[in-house]
Amino acid sequence: MVVKTSIGRKSNKNPPIFSHEFVIQNHADIVSCVIMVFLVGLMVQSTSPLASLFISLHHNITGVEPSRDAPKGEPFFYESGWKDVCAVFFYSLVCIVMHAIIQEYFLDKISKKLHLSKSRLSALNESGQLIIFHLTTLVWGGDAILREGFIFNISMLWDGYPNHPMSFLLKLWWIVQASYWIHTIPELYFLRIKKDEWSGRIRHATVAFAFLALAYCFKFQRVGVCLVVLHSLSEFISHIYRLNNILRGEKDDYLDKSLGLLNGVVFVVVRLCSLVLGVLTFYFGVAGAAPLILRVAALSILVSFQVYLMFNFIAEAMKQRQEALQLAQSKPKKEKKEKPRKEKVKKVHNEESDLPEVDQNTNKALRQRQAFKATVKAK
User: Fold this and answer.
1) Rounded to whole angstroms, how far apart are CA atoms 371 and 358?
2) What are phi and psi of 188, to 5 degrees?
3) Which of 59, 134, 227, 247 is a plausible cystine mate for 81, CB 3.0–4.6 Å?
4) 134: how many CB neighbours lie within 10 A of its CB?
5) What is the pLDDT of residue 379?
């Protein structure tokens, strides 16, 4: 299987092995082989402990396997630790393979039918991947929130801090989140993204990974999953709105207005809910359990991030509004140039209507004679 890149044409000739073109075209196969090495190592007794370090989740504090005495066993709960770095590395490889599958079997087929420009094609690939990621984050994270009961008992977000063990699904969710943002950096090379876009995407991935790492390491996994799910809801709607503009163009119709309104409402509601949740947890909830410096730093980072996003959103909305006003002002100028012609015609008809019926008939007869003479001369 050869992975077709989204930007740039693939030559018919087979590139030399270990060349850049060979790695780019076959990066999914290469990474799949590396993953298979770990899986095969898991089945061999001598290498199983080392392979399980990358594949399995570690740092469990409770849990019992099913046995005769306890057929159901006891659920396993985990905490954070240094072995999670190995799991993040392995699942980042899995993310690279999944990224290539989505790119080849979905996004590339859509782009071939639309014949988009390079800038729109790059935006389509970015938004298409992020829509799937944020939808997965919403479904998986929302399920974890419901299973843990955070939504029905919000005090569980800070009760017992820092003793907040994680279930298997919740810890795996955190590992996959960190793995996804790490894998986006090598994808810039694999997908031949323009160097102009590297800085923005690397900054985005670095900030997202930093937030996840800080929340995970400082035992804020419960409030962190709620904040990330809220943010993913806003990003999911935003990228749907962006994808609509890419595929359909900037059409000022009912669908575009509805998606724009929904995007604005969800964005503002998510920012407010995130601030309220952060104040309740960091200012009131963990008071006495966490150091003051940690609480102030966490709340400052959260508030600064929400204000930054809100400022960018307002600036973008004002920019779009100004562009719309400029387009609206340019249209009446064309209409004004066309109006005098119509008015002249109307004036001629009005002048004739003011004359008596005899004069109107004579004018008509003269016009008919002139038209007849013109036709005779033409013959």
Assistant:
1) 20
2) -60, -35
3) 59
4) 22
5) 53
